[in-house]
Amino acid sequence: MQISVIIPVYNASEFLEKAVDSALQFDEVQEIVLVEDKSTDNSLEICQKLVVKNSKIKLYQHPDKGNHGAGATRNLGLEKANCEFISFLDADDYYLPNRFEAEKEIFKHTKIEGVFGAIGVEYLTEKGKQAFQDKFKNISLTTVNFPAEGEEVFRGLLGLTTKVFGTFFHLNALTIRKSALIKNDLRFNENLRVHQDSDFITKLAYHCYLKSGIIDKAIAVRGVHDNNRITKIVRYSREYNQRQLLLWTSLYNWADSNSILPEGKRKIYLTYKSFDLSLKTGLNKYFCIFLEVIKNPQILKTQYRFTYLNR
User: Fold this and answer.
1) Are residues 245 and 178 in the same domain?
2) 18/90 same-domain check
3) What is the separation of C-alpha 311 from the centre of its chain, rounded to a whole number of angstroms?
4) Which of left, alpha, beta for 170 (phi over 0: left; psi -120 to 50: alpha)?
5) How far is CA 44 from CA 53, 190, 251, in A?
6) Which residue spans adopt a coiled-coil conformation according to this UniProt entry (predicted)?
7) How many helical (H) and strand (E) elements, i.e. helices and strands, does the chain have?
8) Total number of domains constituting the chain
């Protein structure tokens, strides 16, 4: 295997070297693509020093040297990556020594286009730990509940399997054939400042043949600290619902233009509509809920129903 590791860099000076070193430990990693997104700390300077130290490390910025967000930054990384396989790593996270163990065997089967695994958590600050646990309880492993491949992965992510599939797997634990991304014209939605990873993974699971790898123990670690975007927004607050609506609007528009299974399209619509209703106010809100329940009574069974019923 020859792997390009894409690392988007924004205000990660404290963690970046550890992330890069964790990727350099693998012979399979032929290049590390750092894409710096106009940090306000000294991340760019650290990137420049790392490039000098190791020829596998390559540094890019957006053509205008501006800040464009994680989606656009990862897309630039995809454009610059040269290897047959692509993996991702956030600049404040790191790989474990078993990161590509499953991939070495699974990718011998040419029909497999992507492999995903589990990631663990390391608390770097007490404040970050408290915020993370308030939102996600005491979850030590971001993973799925059972092995899956092909269409079952897509169905699982949408909650359409008989057993609960689990949480979205993390980009840090995903390895994908670059040819699959090119064939299906898959990129990150640059209009989503957050949740562009969930949007990408859902579309990837539909268009590509994915298979679970190591899901019972971590192959990478997420660093939790004070500045994690994922912990800053209170779940089911108005801001949370606004950002979820952007995500599910993106998926709704995509599903509408693709021939996905009817139950998948319906699930995406109902989730999109739940967050849309949650943001309406006054009597108009209850009128819209009433009309939607008449048209689609299933909306009362979605896990997001209380986002609009209780707010």
Assistant:
1) no
2) yes
3) 28
4) beta
5) 15, 22, 34
6) none
7) 12, 11
8) 2
